[in-house]
Amino acid sequence: SDHQLIYPPSPDQMDWSLMYPAYVVEDDKPADSEDTAMAAPGAETEAQSSDELVSSTEPKRLSKEVEVADIGCGFGGLLIALAPVMPDTLILGLEIRVSVTQYVVDRIKALRAQNELAPESNPNSYNNIACLRANTMKFLPNFFRKFQLSRIFICFPDPHFKARKHKQRIVSPTLNSEYAYALRPGGIVYTITDVPDLHHWMVQHFDAHRSFERVSDEDQNADPCVAIMRTETEEGKKVERHSGQKYVACFRRLEDPPFE
Ligand code: SAM
Questions:
Q1: Which of 41, 57, 78, 133 could bridge across to 22 with cysteines, CB 3.0–4.6 Å?
Q2: Quick check: is 158 catalytic?
């Protein structure tokens, strides 16, 4: 439940250094710690469970900020597929289930270790992806400052079919305002589902939000991220196996109107 979730009071107090150790700014690494010098990149990623995520002092700085978020990332297929496609971009999966989050953290750790052993046979170091346990319906603005993100993926969200459960859907007027807050103008929200009713719900709610416009079919089809989200998410693969239909809709974050 939520009381066990760890989240920073504000994005400034979030310590990303354990998740993206390869990107910690040199001055912020402990000066003469042998452990730090010896540690393989990614060796500390499992230390996810503690308040180490939230720094009591100044958090260590990274040379980059997280720019891409996968909301409800499940088993991490999209993160792993995006890592080599955007090798210089920090990508974060957010997942509410403890065991699933741990699975993704371990999976990334193994990929990083494999890359350490045979860098030439790997397409990417996987240092640019990480997974965090979070309830994105509640704490998104605690992690990301305004305009921080360039892409948000919402792939095969839980459909919550019954009308009385619709409030649990992760697309809603309020949550869309949070996505608009975190996303920079020109940034894209990607949605995909195999449930027609949910597709219509997501389209209706993003269309109705004044911070978003629908991306044209032409632009959507030209975006490599769309193809990756169709084929590389675990749910996307499952739908493929059952020859099911996938419904995609993308929305561009508009500039805020000037104050009147
Ligand atoms: N995106 C993945 C894919 O396409 O394979 C997983 C899709 S799965 C059907 C939906 C995921 O969202 C589950 O792993 C679930 O635990 C997660 N989830 C649901 N509500 C969430 C929330 N409020 N915050 C974070 N994750 C959530």
A1: 41
A2: yes
135 lines ligand 1 (CB under 6 A): yes
Residues recorded for the chain: 260
Name the residue with the closest Cα to ligand 1, atom 15.
72
Domain spans in the chain, listed from the N-terminal domain onward? 64-253
Instruction: Check pocket membership of 139 for ligand 1, CB cut-off 6 A.
Output: no
Per-residue pLDDT band for 35 (boundaries 50, 70, 90) equals very low
Structure confidence at residue 56 as a pLDDT band (50, 70, 90): low
C-alpha pair distances (Å), 24 with each of 10, 75, 130: 19, 26, 14
Is the distance from the beta carbon of residue 215 to the nearest atom of ligand 1 less than 6 Å? no
The ipTM assigned to this model is: 0.99
Nearest protein CA to atom 27 of ligand 1, as residue: 72
Q: How far, in Å, CA of 258 to CA of 53, rounded?
A: 36
Q: What is the DSSP string of 137-167?
A: HHHHHHH--TT-EEEEEEES-----SGGGGG
Residues 105-126, mean pLDDT to the nearest whole number: 84
User: For the structural domain made of 64-253, what CATH number should be given?
Assistant: 3.40.50.150
Instruction: Measure 252 CA to ligand 1 centroid, in angstroms.
Output: 22
Q: What tokens were used for 174?
A: 């309020």
